[in-house]
Task: structure prediction
Amino acid sequence: MKGLHDSRLWRRLTTAFIVLPLLACVATASADERIVTDMRDRPVAIPAQVTRAIGTGGAVDAWFLLLGAQDKLVATSTTITKNPWFAKFYPRIRQLPTPISSNDINIEDLTARQPQVAILLSGMASIDKIERAGIPTVVLERRNAEELMRAVSIAADVLGPAEREAAARFCAYYRANIAKVSARVGTISPERRTRVYYAGGAALATEGKNTLVSSWIELAGGRNVAEAAGVNGMSGKVSMEDVIAADPEVIVTLTPTVRDEILSDASWRSIAAVREGRVHVNPKSAYSWGVRSAEEAIQVLWAATIIHPELFGDIDMVAETRAFHAAFFKVALGDADIRHILNAEPPDPSPAGDR
Result:
């Protein structure tokens, strides 16, 4: 019997000698990491303190600027480095390497920059390649205002305490603008909502259901005619016949080039928005305001002023634009700057804004 007890005691002692050191190793490793849950509901282990990160080379890079985390970017895309507004707000952006593109990524150049984490958006073709390279990857969504606010908040949580405070201010500002607009358009019946068409990278390229474009159109008291026609997602296409049948009362274009294309094409002349002079280019600064950008919080206010000008005549978009950029990008804009932004034009050549 004594031998049996001794045998059991030995096994317990042996187990303790093996397991306890392993647990100690796990505890030591986890002390240098923390877990965040991305919008695919995946736990992602990231360093306890993030100082080197990448975004999408697009809208998410503008979130870094919004959150005051721009110095943590270690790589970007030519989309960002060639945006003169981003460079005006943050001149160092032009010094970063550009291994990221919308369709692919140079993984060798990217890993050479040693990012600790990647903050990406669902649907990016490069997600798998980045994950296979061993870079912790936080994947976010952005189909409506609430998702965007949650995404910015998760990105801020990845980046640090100061960024979390900035995200909280951003979400409070965003919700305040939504509430201000909803108080005036909330009682408009569906049949009285203004018909709005959004033209993206080309006149007949659009966005439909489950997109932020539809979100801000609806929040501003409009109805996205592309969604009504069955378009779903960000890469929608319509025909000229579709647009004529929908007869939008307001058209918003991603770029001045597409606006000019529509206004110069005889096929569009019968459209109500063209006849009534209600074709608008979406403002652009660090990124185009209407497509998943940091400026999405002010987009809903601008959209309300063009979709229902009769309800928002008291909104001064010059003052709103100045205040937004001072609060969130820490830049002081002059009147010419604001005029250019509201017309999606580049800035006048000038020294970088104060940060």
Q: What stands out?
A: Confidence is low (pLDDT under 50) at residues 1-6, 13-29. The chain has two domains: 29-168, 187-342.
